[in-house]
Amino acid sequence: MQSFQEIILNLKHYWADRGCIIQEPYDIEVGAGTMVSETFLRVLGPKPYRVAYVQPSRRPADGRYGDNPNRLYKHLQLQVILKPSPEDVIEQYLGSLEAIGIDLRHHDIKLEEDNWEAPTLGAWGIGWQVMLDGLEISQFTYFQQCGGIDLDLVPAELTYGLERLTAFLQVKDSVYDIEWAPGFTYGDVRYQDELQYSVYNFEMADIPTLWKLFELHEGEAARLLKQYDPKAADKKRFPLLPTYDQVLKCSNLFNTLDARGAISVTERQVVMGRVRRLAVGVAQAWTDQQQERSGAEVAQ
Amino acid sequence: MSLPFLLEIGTEEIPDWMIPAALANLRLLFEKLEIPYESVALDATPRRLVLRAEGLPERQPDSEERVMGPAKSAPAQAVAGFARKHGVKPEDLTIETTAKGDYYSFVKKVEGRRTKDILAGALPSLILQINFPKTMYWTGKGGPRFIRPIRWIVALLGEEIVPFDLAGVHSGSLTSGHRRLGAREIVVTIADYERRLRDHYVILSAEERRQKLTSEMAGVRVKPDPALLETLVYITEFPTPITGSFDTQFLELPEEVLITVMRHHQKYFSVEDAHGKLAPQFVAVMNIDADREGFVRRGNERVLRARFTDARFFWETDQKKKLADRVEDLKAVTFLKDLKERGSYHHKVERMLAMLSGDRHAARAAELCKCDLTTELVKEFTELQGVVGGLYARVQGEPEPVWQAIYDHYKPESMEDAIPRNHAGQMVSIADKIDSLRSCFSVGLVPTGSKDPYALRRAAQGVVRILVEGEVAIPLLNLIEGKELTAFFEDRVRFYFKDIRGFKYDEVNAAMAAGWGDLKDLETRLARIQKLRPTPDFEPLAASFKRIRNILEQAKWDRPPGLSSIDPTLLEPGPETDLYHEYRGIAGQPIENVISRLRPKVDLFFDKVLVNAPDARVRQNRLTLLSTLLAEFSTIADFSEIVTNS
Known about the structure:
The complex is a heterodimer of chains A (300) and B (646). Chain A has helices spanning 4-17, 37-40, 89-99, 162-170, 186-204, 207-227, 240-259, 265-290, 295-299, and strands spanning 21-22, 49-58, 74-83, 109-113, 116-118, 123-132, 135-146, 149-150, 156-161, 179-181, 184-185. In chain A, strands 1, 2, 3, 4, 5, 6, 7, 8 and 9 form a nine-stranded mixed sheet that branches. In chain A, strands 10-11 form a two-stranded antiparallel ribbon. Chain A is α+β, with helices and mostly antiparallel strands. The interface between A and B is large, with 41 and 50 residues.
């Protein structure tokens, strides 16, 4: 039986062998691997890129104090971006399942329509949820737009739900019973986080403080974005990546406020719109910034 | 020589529900090519759209075309030049006489184009023209769009490949088998295509896949579900059913919840016991040939257990707060954000209650009917809204008419769906739908063409159905206001009686022209017209009514009824007086009883009497007589709307 960490290592190895850069998790809280600039910004523009990374994904409203066997405040996603997507991308994906010991001649695998959309990122794509013996184990998406921009090269995004996949392989009914490493269960490693973050997110987070933080980060992102000048000669050094960090902070604070019940439904739309404007602004500036200089500019 | 043709568009998994329409569309596009054929057949799996035709000609027939050259008077040099250019000898040219004079010409034989070349030229754009509700690009910005990436194409005419390129794929004779049980590249001919696929675990025919599933499920008492069967037929290439079971303790949960989890979330058939009650079993459909080790069954059982455990957790959690205690929570749930400060469900319910004054059960049901939107179970299984509210209301001791009304108040959700089973449910459903329609129309959210994001047509159709088929005696026009909404409903009423109930369109027009404010009344009148129509006097009388209408229109007759009355002294003896007396005698009686007496009098009147009399007073009197007659018998319908053969 492969442990949780062995499954992760095997998948990373598999994708490294197929030309992916193995990135480490991004160090700012995000709700999904897609939000990390390694995906959100790298899929923009004409440069091919291949990357795989495990991203802890925080969804404050999904926390269950460690009580629910299937729901987590923070779960781990393996995010794979293949830009442009190779012709045999589905075969490669199925190969990755075989690489962690799933014999697909004896299991039922289905690709069921599921188009992905992230309104706060102005991003959407066409794809499937991958069902293995009735369990959704991955999301497979051909990105079409990101930050409201049509993509030059169509990347394939493969997102593995690592806990689910492992529970399946280890035949465990509760995620907390997964063997993380020999002698350590998932519960040993993660239970305290689930409990304490649930308490914080649902009961103790100070709403005025979170709002204040949200506005501070929002203000900083907006201040920076306003200063980006597409005509500036030295625009390549403009700190768009740090600007985007501020947007990510906003997004996580928004999710926490939401879990805390501090956002009414009407407000929700408005606040999401505020985050989207910033994310789209960064994506547009980034696309401009990363463009190769034209021949005329080089000649000067 | 006639040739068979095979086109297989190999793709990544196409959404099942789009496949039948795509095939119909592909057939149409093929027919439009105007290449003759004897027969055509279409098939599909999630990974291939296939068209096979028999009896295509090898080439189009040869044709002849006359090529005109220089005038007869032209110098010999020019004539020789013309002949040389077209590769004929000058002596083979003939003189052709035209309106403009005599010219050299010759008949050119045009060889018919080869079908293979026509197909090679036409197929790439034909394939991309197949209509899908949503498409994607995959080769890069500006690249071709299709439902999912095209990965291979088989195009064979007879034994030859029809060569073309599309989205970087070359057409050829290589197909692909089942993703895991078959080979990735298989050489096929038209003759062995379907058999080769079968060898590689692809059953090409949807009918055969359906048969396989049905016969292999025959041993289990499966709840019939044709829509789910179709879905499964089109998400598999080699479907095989397996039966799994779940712990009987979950049978404590309402069947509705269990079935929804199985059907909508897991695509399982549910199973009944001998008494028609839900059994602790399910049938899942795999896309492989067998589950020898039981991996698939156990996997599905575990997934279902986790889902049921969640559902039970939600069910128990939700019970901690009664529906009645959730009314205030609706203030935070948006119904329609465009309504601004009146846009919450709390406000919607207030508006519904205002419509329902007087009916105790309906009012109670309306008050509670949206509260389930705040429950965990509905957040998880949104398709169970209403049903869950009804189930909770029952458990929480609400009277039967109330919980049933809550349970049913989204009904009817389709044309086939039943309307709410009791009066309170019908009232609440009407109030809910009318409020949605009024609200959306008030902020300009009016359906246009195929765009109807708030499903307002369905809502209006539901109101119409409940008013006609239910126990509700409310005139529709008391519920709606505004030109736009009235016109919208008029369309739905017409659609309902014409397309759903099957009345003839002119009967519907005629009956509606006499008013449609009360749908029960409209239904009764339509039934009367339908019965009256085959009687021998009906159509001639309808034609006469049309004539009367035309005469009145030409005379610009717009006398409001009752302002002036018929002056018997001005009536001409004979047909006009006879008609008047006939009218006096039958006024107030149903048309069915008098039609046979009235018709000959009307006919005779038109035969013998000139309406347009020279004396203005006589003319006015005649027009008054005709308009009175028309008004008297137009309360059931405006008969001039009836399309007659005469």
